[in-house]
Amino acid sequence: MIPHKTKHGAAALARLKAYEGIPPPYDKIKRMVIPDALKMIPHKTKHGAAALARLKAYEGIPPPYDKIKRMVIPDALKALRLQKGHKYCLLGKLSSEVGWNHYDTIKELEKKRKERAHVTYERKK
């Protein structure tokens, strides 16, 4: 999927062009997620501020959560939610094009985590 073909990808590339010649504004992906969530959550209300305070953003799966059994929410699956032909973009891929430098590192760490999880699963069998 080419991010600049989507609405959000075009906005990200416009932000990138605004920062040409100077260092990119984001060094961590969570610093991109929080401001975007701030725009979507009614943060000036009491319940919106509480929701924003509960919001946590991580790169990959952090250590306390990688040992917890993960659940699949069927209503949130991409295959069920997105209609055929609708455009989408991945946050990590989009961030790497805007200036985030750790996309490949996270993919490598996720691969190692899956290998460890597979070994653990086979041991439990």
UniProtKB/TrEMBL annotation:
Keyword presence, Transmembrane: no
Name this polypeptide is given: 60S ribosomal protein L13a
SUPFAM superfamilies cross-referenced by the UniProt entry: Ribosomal protein L13
Annotated InterPro entries: Ribosomal_uL13, Ribosomal_uL13_sf
Lineage: Eukaryota, Viridiplantae, Streptophyta, Embryophyta, Tracheophyta
UniProt GO molecular function: mRNA binding; structural constituent of ribosome
Organism: Acer saccharum
Family, similarity comment: Belongs to the universal ribosomal protein uL13 family.
GO cellular component terms, A-Z: cytosolic large ribosomal subunit
Keywords: Ribonucleoprotein, Ribosomal protein
Gene Ontology biological-process entries: negative regulation of translation; translation
